[in-house]
Amino acid sequence: MALILRHAQPAEGLRWVRGAFALYARRPMGFTAMFAAFLMLVLLAAVLPLLGPVLMLMSLPLLGLGFMIAARAARGGEPVHPGCFVEPLRAAAPRRNALLLLCGLYAFGTALVMWLSDWVDAGSFERLQEMLAKGEAAQAEVDALLADPRLTWGLIVRFGLAACLSVPFWHAPPLVYWQGQGVGQSLFSSTLALWRCRGAFVVYALAWAGVVLAFGAVAALLFSLLGARQLAGMAAMPAALIFSTVFYVSLLFTYEGCFSDSAAAPAAG
Fold it and tell me: 35 burial class (0-12, 13-18, 19+ CB within 10 angstroms)?
């Protein structure tokens, strides 16, 4: 089938998020188990010196593609399980090799972004993470570090370049796996799709921000009324797990909102 690049309307971005929550509700345990399994693999990879971080970065494109495969399976009434992550590696050799090359390019690009960010902030972001993780730093030290302009510029570079890197890789894995596009063509098609549907992606991002803020406000109000504000942080952990899982489920809706074939209308939500 010929692949058609759509021009998604801004309102579709909201339907992508809403459709993802509805699909997640069909297989909540299966989708959550997939994300939990990925987190376990990340923890195991962190133990490996040098090779572990590289494998972790390379796995991120396959993470999104695995969830897209699982989302299609759930929509068709089929089971959802962590084995969906392995499906792309069972593809024909040309597509599998292209996917592995995409993973390598993504890992290299992410490492480059991290290196540039560390160079700009002179390691201040890493020091801030260490202080917050240990919980032993005096508030004056943290405030002094937050006031450092190098940290501010480092954060701008870090998140700005990371956002730019995500654009060509957003749809590239499914375009390789399902459409058989080459690496260069898939990166270009993904970039063009996100630019053409930028209004829908702005609404999509705002919708996710609204979901997170609304949960935070409701949780804070509820635990405040119960007189147990300290438990709000505990509620945030399972919520973050669910929201992260639903986000990856929503990737299928963004893909089908940007592309369709000549024989079928897209499923936008």
Answer: buried
Residue tagged 């991290």 (tokens): 114
Kindly report, residue by residue over 225-253, the tens digit of the pLDDT.
777 666 666 777 888 999 999 999 999 99
Sort 223 into a burial class: Cβ within 10 Å, 0-12 / 13-18 / 19+: middle
Among 5, 10, 19, 15, which residue's Cα sits nearest to residue 200? 10
d(CA 189, CA 137): 47
Q: Which two tokens stand for residue 223?
A: 């635990």
User: Which residues pair with residue 5 across a beta bridge?
Assistant: 259
Alpha-carbon distance 261 to 187, whole Å?
Answer: 19
Average pLDDT over residues 92-117: 94
* Amino acid letter for position 169: F
User: What is the pTM assigned to this prediction?
Assistant: 0.87
Q: Which of 70, 74, 73 is nearest to 38 (CA)?
A: 70
How far, in Å, CA of 42 to CA of 62, rounded? Answer: 13
Half-sphere CA count of 213, side-chain side, radius 13 A: 6
The predicted-structure confidence for 182-206, as pLDDT tens digits, reads as follows 999 999 999 999 999 999 999 999 9
Residue 187's H or E segment, with its range, is: helix 183-196
